[in-house]
Amino acid sequence: MPETTRELLSPDAWKDLTFGPFRGDVTIHWIRPFEGDQPGVALLKYEAGASVPRHRHEGLETILVLEGMQSDEAGDYGRGSYIVNAAGTEHSVWSDTGCVVLIQWDRPVKILEEEIA
To answer: Which positions fall inside the ChrR-like cupin domain (predicted)?
Structure first.
């Protein structure tokens, strides 16, 4: 079993994992990076107030909220929420309080609006 998989089975074990830059105040820990036609799987950690600008899903995206609250135009999703975004859908994502999510993308998303600094 890969090391990351074993660590994820323990409560809050993700807190000891190394996260790197992703987008602004959102960091990433890759469990399985995109490779060929294989989906990407990662943990995303949003600091309080962090966001990802409007983007389009080029493939299916599934999310499990592990901690905190993630939000988009359709609502707020707390710990334990399972979110499915179909290919072709668009939204922006943010977290007022901060959150950690387990995410799987069939294909990378396409950013539609860049954040204005």
So the answer is: 16-103
